[in-house]
Amino acid sequence: MQLQLPARQSGCSARRRGHVARSFGLRPAHGQFMKASPVRRVVVQVATATAEQVEVKQAGSFDFNQYMVDRATLVNKALDEAVPQKYPDTLYESMRYSLLAGGKRVRPALCLAACELVGGDVRAALPAACAMEMVHTMSLIHDDLPSMDNDDFRRGRPTNHKVFGEDIAILSGDALLTFAFEHIARATHGVSADRVLRVIIELGRASGAEGLVAGQVVDIQSEDKAVGLDVLKYIHVHKTAALLEASVVCGAILGGADEATVEKLRKYSLNIGLAFQVIDDILDVTATTEQLGKTAAKDLAVNKTTYPKLLGLEKSKEVADQLIQEAIQQLDGFDKAKAAPLVALAKYIGYRQN
């Protein structure tokens, strides 16, 4: 599927149009702090979809569910160690409350899988994989704020600002964002400084004014307005796909991939990133709050333009399916066993139930 995105005012290259995002709390807010105990328990949430759709076992050798459990366990342990409970207690409790709240760890899994695909050592990409989850968690904390999407539930429990107040939620999100870059710089070993710098640049673009923030701004400005497909694609590509793109691209860079391989995987990630948000739009209409772990039908409540609203449910499903197929095509030519995780992750994204 050829993406036709609106022209960028910044004059940035077409390559960078494939960036996505989640959201930012841009101004201070105050709320009542409710004491929460330090979050020490690491929860592993397994990505779920039907076995037929994801092809959980490929050629009897690749078990997708077990792969995701193993990767989530690895990442959760690393996150728990990277962000320990310490003073100021409230700040770190808030950071850990959301960072260690479970989740499928799709972005870290993509980062690690891309690194291994190109022959890299997973240990080289683990700090970046954790950083992707830190930025993603920041985006969820800020996205849920009353000044943004105003949501009360995330991952099946009260959102961060409902527990710690808006002021602490904003600050803990800020802390996770900045620490993500510090963690990459401090904890990445066995990789050239040039490649680490490229990773920091990629993540900076994905999480800032060329990615997450840009998508969130246009999303906010488009509420309760009739917008076309080009604007909707812009929002999705920047607000959601950008961090998924950075996850894959950074993993490939840290694994030692050449530029041609990086760009091939960039195309893969752009397609799965857009498909991810199309499916999100569909699930907002078809799934329950219990299934999603967050409030369902939020888009409808604020009269937000979505793929189902513009194209209908069936056409939206066709769009997502085409994007997933085109993503998988980018993996042609790679070793099939090494590509199996990225193939399965693409199918999971396209057929997920939550």
Automatic annotation (TrEMBL):
Pathway: Isoprenoid biosynthesis. Signal peptide: none annotated. Keywords: Isoprene biosynthesis, Magnesium, Metal-binding, Transferase. One of its GO terms (biological process) is isoprenoid biosynthetic process. One of its GO terms (molecular function) is metal ion binding. One of its GO terms (cellular component) is cytoplasm. InterPro entries: GGPPSyn_CRT-like, Isoprenoid_synthase_dom_sf, Polyprenyl_synt, Polyprenyl_synt_CS, Prenyl_diphosphate_synthase. CDD domains: Trans_IPPS_HT. It comes from the Eukaryota. It holds the Pfam family polyprenyl_synt. Belongs to the FPP/GGPP synthase family. This is Geranylgeranyl pyrophosphate synthase.
